[in-house]
Amino acid sequence: DIVMTQSPHSLAVSLGERATINCKSSQRISYSSTNRNYLTWYQQRPGQPPKVLIYWASTRQSGVPDRFRGSGSGTNFTLTISSLQAEDVAVYYCQQYHTTPYTFGQGTKLEIK
Amino acid sequence: QVQLVQSVGEVKKPGASVTVSCEASGFNFSNFGISWVRQAPGEGLEWMGWISPNNGHTVYAQKFKGRVTMTTDTSTNTAYMEVRSLRSADTAMYYCARDNWESGDFDFWGQGTLVTVSS
Fold first, then answer.
1. Shortest Cα distance from A38 to chain B (angstroms)?
2. A59–B103 C-beta distance less than 8 A
3. Could B61 and A97 be called an inter-chain contact, meaning their C-beta atoms sit closer than 8 Å?
4. What is the DSSP string of A45-97?
5. Which end of chain A is more exposed for a tag (fewer CB within 10 A), N or C?
6. How far is the alpha carbon of B112 from chain A, nearest alpha carbon, in Å?
7. Separation of alpha carbons B66 and B87, rounded Å
8. Could you tell me which chain A residue has the CA closest to the CA of B35?
9. pLDDT average, residue stretch B72-101
10. Closest Cα to residue B70, out of B109, B97, B42?
11. SS3 for B29?
Protein backbone atom coordinates (compact mmCIF):
# COMPACT_ATOMS: atom_id res chain seq x y z
CA ASP A 1 0.00 0.00 0.00
CA ILE A 2 1.09 3.58 -0.62
CA VAL A 3 1.74 5.31 2.69
CA MET A 4 0.89 9.00 2.93
CA THR A 5 2.75 10.92 5.63
CA GLN A 6 1.65 14.40 6.61
CA SER A 7 3.52 16.99 8.63
CA PRO A 8 3.03 18.61 10.99
CA HIS A 9 0.34 16.74 12.94
CA SER A 10 -0.98 20.07 14.22
CA LEU A 11 -0.37 23.68 13.44
CA ALA A 12 -1.33 26.99 15.04
CA VAL A 13 -1.17 30.09 12.85
CA SER A 14 -2.23 33.69 13.43
CA LEU A 15 -5.08 35.14 11.40
CA GLY A 16 -3.79 36.57 8.15
CA GLU A 17 -0.58 34.55 8.27
CA ARG A 18 0.52 31.69 6.04
CA ALA A 19 -0.07 28.04 6.85
CA THR A 20 1.88 25.24 5.16
CA ILE A 21 1.08 21.53 5.33
CA ASN A 22 3.28 18.86 3.80
CA CYS A 23 2.42 15.43 2.45
CA LYS A 24 4.85 12.73 1.33
CA SER A 25 3.91 9.57 -0.51
CA SER A 26 5.91 6.35 -0.18
CA GLN A 27 6.05 6.05 -3.97
CA ARG A 28 5.39 8.21 -6.99
CA ILE A 29 1.70 8.92 -7.57
CA SER A 30 1.85 10.22 -11.11
CA TYR A 31 1.20 8.62 -14.47
CA SER A 32 3.54 9.58 -17.30
CA SER A 33 0.67 9.13 -19.78
CA THR A 34 -1.29 11.98 -18.20
CA ASN A 35 1.55 13.87 -16.51
CA ARG A 36 -0.75 14.27 -13.53
CA ASN A 37 -0.09 13.69 -9.87
CA TYR A 38 -3.07 11.91 -8.28
CA LEU A 39 -2.98 13.80 -5.01
CA THR A 40 -6.06 15.38 -3.46
CA TRP A 41 -6.36 17.72 -0.49
CA TYR A 42 -9.49 17.68 1.69
CA GLN A 43 -10.69 19.99 4.42
CA GLN A 44 -12.81 18.56 7.22
CA ARG A 45 -14.48 20.97 9.59
CA PRO A 46 -15.81 19.62 12.92
CA GLY A 47 -18.96 17.58 12.47
CA GLN A 48 -18.79 17.75 8.68
CA PRO A 49 -17.77 15.32 5.93
CA PRO A 50 -14.54 16.10 4.08
CA LYS A 51 -14.60 18.61 1.24
CA VAL A 52 -12.29 18.66 -1.78
CA LEU A 53 -9.98 21.67 -1.93
CA ILE A 54 -7.37 20.62 -4.50
CA TYR A 55 -7.11 17.72 -6.95
CA TRP A 56 -4.32 16.64 -9.33
CA ALA A 57 -2.01 18.17 -6.68
CA SER A 58 -2.56 21.75 -7.81
CA THR A 59 -6.01 22.22 -9.39
CA ARG A 60 -8.36 24.13 -7.16
CA GLN A 61 -11.91 22.75 -6.88
CA SER A 62 -14.62 25.10 -8.13
CA GLY A 63 -15.65 27.55 -5.41
CA VAL A 64 -12.52 27.12 -3.31
CA PRO A 65 -10.93 30.47 -2.37
CA ASP A 66 -7.69 31.28 -4.14
CA ARG A 67 -5.81 31.57 -0.84
CA PHE A 68 -5.62 27.75 -1.00
CA ARG A 69 -2.77 26.54 -3.21
CA GLY A 70 -1.50 23.05 -3.88
CA SER A 71 1.96 22.31 -5.20
CA GLY A 72 4.47 19.52 -5.60
CA SER A 73 5.06 16.45 -7.72
CA GLY A 74 6.49 12.97 -7.54
CA THR A 75 6.34 12.12 -3.86
CA ASN A 76 6.37 15.52 -2.13
CA PHE A 77 3.35 17.80 -1.97
CA THR A 78 2.33 20.95 -0.14
CA LEU A 79 -0.90 22.72 0.73
CA THR A 80 -0.46 26.43 1.40
CA ILE A 81 -3.08 28.76 2.84
CA SER A 82 -1.75 32.21 2.05
CA SER A 83 -3.72 34.26 4.57
CA LEU A 84 -5.46 32.28 7.29
CA GLN A 85 -9.12 33.04 7.94
CA ALA A 86 -11.16 31.95 10.95
CA GLU A 87 -13.24 29.59 8.82
CA ASP A 88 -10.10 27.67 7.82
CA VAL A 89 -9.92 25.99 11.24
CA ALA A 90 -10.23 22.33 10.31
CA VAL A 91 -8.34 19.08 9.82
CA TYR A 92 -6.65 18.77 6.43
CA TYR A 93 -6.00 15.43 4.73
CA CYS A 94 -4.04 14.47 1.67
CA GLN A 95 -5.03 11.39 -0.30
CA GLN A 96 -3.52 9.46 -3.18
CA TYR A 97 -5.80 8.30 -5.99
CA HIS A 98 -3.06 6.54 -7.94
CA THR A 99 -3.49 2.97 -6.70
CA THR A 100 -6.02 1.09 -4.62
CA PRO A 101 -6.30 1.04 -1.70
CA TYR A 102 -6.68 4.79 -1.90
CA THR A 103 -4.88 5.99 1.20
CA PHE A 104 -5.07 9.16 3.27
CA GLY A 105 -2.53 10.98 5.33
CA GLN A 106 -3.16 10.97 9.06
CA GLY A 107 -4.42 14.55 9.00
CA THR A 108 -3.15 17.95 10.11
CA LYS A 109 -5.18 19.92 12.64
CA LEU A 110 -5.06 23.64 11.90
CA GLU A 111 -5.90 26.11 14.66
CA ILE A 112 -5.75 29.84 15.23
CA LYS A 113 -2.83 31.09 17.32
CA GLN B 1 -27.58 19.64 -7.35
CA VAL B 2 -25.53 16.59 -6.49
CA GLN B 3 -26.62 14.97 -3.24
CA LEU B 4 -25.78 11.78 -1.40
CA VAL B 5 -28.19 11.06 1.45
CA GLN B 6 -27.27 8.30 3.86
CA SER B 7 -29.36 6.23 6.23
CA VAL B 8 -29.65 7.13 9.90
CA GLY B 9 -27.26 5.92 12.55
CA GLU B 10 -27.48 2.48 14.11
CA VAL B 11 -26.49 0.74 17.32
CA LYS B 12 -25.48 -2.90 16.94
CA LYS B 13 -24.21 -5.64 19.20
CA PRO B 14 -20.87 -7.35 18.56
CA GLY B 15 -21.21 -10.08 15.97
CA ALA B 16 -24.19 -8.47 14.25
CA SER B 17 -24.36 -7.01 10.75
CA VAL B 18 -25.27 -3.54 9.56
CA THR B 19 -26.25 -2.17 6.16
CA VAL B 20 -25.75 1.50 5.35
CA SER B 21 -27.50 3.04 2.37
CA CYS B 22 -26.57 6.03 0.24
CA GLU B 23 -29.17 7.53 -2.11
CA ALA B 24 -27.74 9.60 -4.95
CA SER B 25 -29.42 12.39 -6.89
CA GLY B 26 -28.50 15.21 -9.23
CA PHE B 27 -26.17 13.24 -11.50
CA ASN B 28 -26.04 10.15 -13.69
CA PHE B 29 -25.47 7.44 -11.08
CA SER B 30 -23.98 5.02 -13.60
CA ASN B 31 -21.26 7.43 -14.73
CA PHE B 32 -19.39 7.58 -11.42
CA GLY B 33 -18.08 5.20 -8.81
CA ILE B 34 -19.11 5.17 -5.17
CA SER B 35 -16.41 4.85 -2.54
CA TRP B 36 -16.98 4.14 1.12
CA VAL B 37 -14.78 5.77 3.77
CA ARG B 38 -14.96 5.37 7.52
CA GLN B 39 -13.73 7.50 10.39
CA ALA B 40 -13.44 6.17 13.94
CA PRO B 41 -14.10 8.72 16.70
CA GLY B 42 -11.26 11.25 16.81
CA GLU B 43 -9.35 9.39 14.10
CA GLY B 44 -8.48 9.84 10.44
CA LEU B 45 -10.08 8.70 7.21
CA GLU B 46 -9.93 5.08 6.03
CA TRP B 47 -10.94 3.99 2.53
CA MET B 48 -12.92 0.76 2.59
CA GLY B 49 -13.64 0.10 -1.05
CA TRP B 50 -15.31 1.15 -4.27
CA ILE B 51 -18.14 0.04 -6.49
CA SER B 52 -19.07 0.87 -10.07
CA PRO B 53 -22.87 1.23 -10.34
CA ASN B 54 -22.48 0.71 -14.09
CA ASN B 55 -21.43 -2.94 -13.85
CA GLY B 56 -21.28 -3.78 -10.14
CA HIS B 57 -17.50 -4.17 -10.18
CA THR B 58 -16.01 -3.79 -6.72
CA VAL B 59 -12.58 -3.22 -5.22
CA TYR B 60 -12.18 -3.72 -1.48
CA ALA B 61 -9.34 -2.76 0.82
CA GLN B 62 -7.62 -5.94 1.95
CA LYS B 63 -8.61 -5.56 5.61
CA PHE B 64 -12.31 -5.56 4.70
CA LYS B 65 -12.36 -8.39 2.16
CA GLY B 66 -14.75 -11.14 3.24
CA ARG B 67 -16.49 -8.97 5.82
CA VAL B 68 -17.85 -6.12 3.70
CA THR B 69 -20.13 -6.23 0.66
CA MET B 70 -20.93 -3.24 -1.50
CA THR B 71 -23.87 -3.23 -3.90
CA THR B 72 -25.93 -0.77 -5.88
CA ASP B 73 -29.51 -0.55 -7.13
CA THR B 74 -29.57 1.54 -10.29
CA SER B 75 -33.39 1.61 -10.31
CA THR B 76 -33.31 3.73 -7.14
CA ASN B 77 -29.81 5.25 -7.52
CA THR B 78 -28.85 3.80 -4.16
CA ALA B 79 -25.60 2.27 -2.98
CA TYR B 80 -25.42 -0.11 -0.05
CA MET B 81 -22.64 -1.33 2.17
CA GLU B 82 -23.03 -4.30 4.50
CA VAL B 83 -20.51 -4.92 7.28
CA ARG B 84 -20.72 -8.31 9.01
CA SER B 85 -19.30 -9.69 12.25
CA LEU B 86 -19.19 -6.26 13.83
CA ARG B 87 -16.77 -5.56 16.65
CA SER B 88 -16.22 -2.52 18.82
CA ALA B 89 -13.38 -1.36 16.55
CA ASP B 90 -15.99 -0.89 13.80
CA THR B 91 -17.62 1.94 15.74
CA ALA B 92 -17.22 4.82 13.32
CA MET B 93 -18.84 7.34 11.04
CA TYR B 94 -19.32 5.73 7.65
CA TYR B 95 -19.36 7.97 4.57
CA CYS B 96 -20.25 7.30 0.97
CA ALA B 97 -18.62 9.54 -1.61
CA ARG B 98 -18.92 10.06 -5.34
CA ASP B 99 -15.73 8.69 -6.84
CA ASN B 100 -14.83 10.90 -9.79
CA TRP B 101 -12.19 9.14 -11.84
CA GLU B 102 -11.90 12.09 -14.21
CA SER B 103 -10.66 14.43 -11.51
CA GLY B 104 -9.28 11.64 -9.35
CA ASP B 105 -11.07 12.58 -6.18
CA PHE B 106 -14.15 12.04 -4.03
CA ASP B 107 -15.95 15.21 -5.05
CA PHE B 108 -19.24 14.83 -3.16
CA TRP B 109 -19.86 13.14 0.17
CA GLY B 110 -22.85 11.90 2.09
CA GLN B 111 -23.55 13.34 5.53
CA GLY B 112 -22.26 10.20 7.23
CA THR B 113 -23.89 7.36 9.17
CA LEU B 114 -22.74 6.69 12.72
CA VAL B 115 -22.54 2.99 13.50
CA THR B 116 -22.01 2.18 17.16
CA VAL B 117 -21.06 -1.35 18.16
CA SER B 118 -21.69 -1.99 21.82
CA SER B 119 -22.85 -4.85 23.99
1. 6
2. yes
3. no
4. -TTS--EEEEETTTEEPTT--TTEEEEEETTEEEEEESS--GGG-EEEEEEE-
5. C
6. 7
7. 15
8. A102
9. 97
10. B97
11. helix
The CA-atom distances, in angstroms, between B33 and each of A67, B4, B7, B23, B28 are 30, 13, 19, 13, 11
Quote the strand ranges of B26-91, DSSP E. 33-39, 46-51, 58-60, 68-73, 78-83
**How far is the C-alpha of A109 from the C-alpha of A11, rounded, in Å?**
6
pLDDT at B109: 98
- Per-residue confidence in pLDDT tens, chain A, 113 aa: 999 999 999 999 999 999 999 999 999 999 888 889 999 999 999 999 999 999 999 999 999 999 999 999 999 999 999 999 999 999 999 999 999 999 999 999 999 99
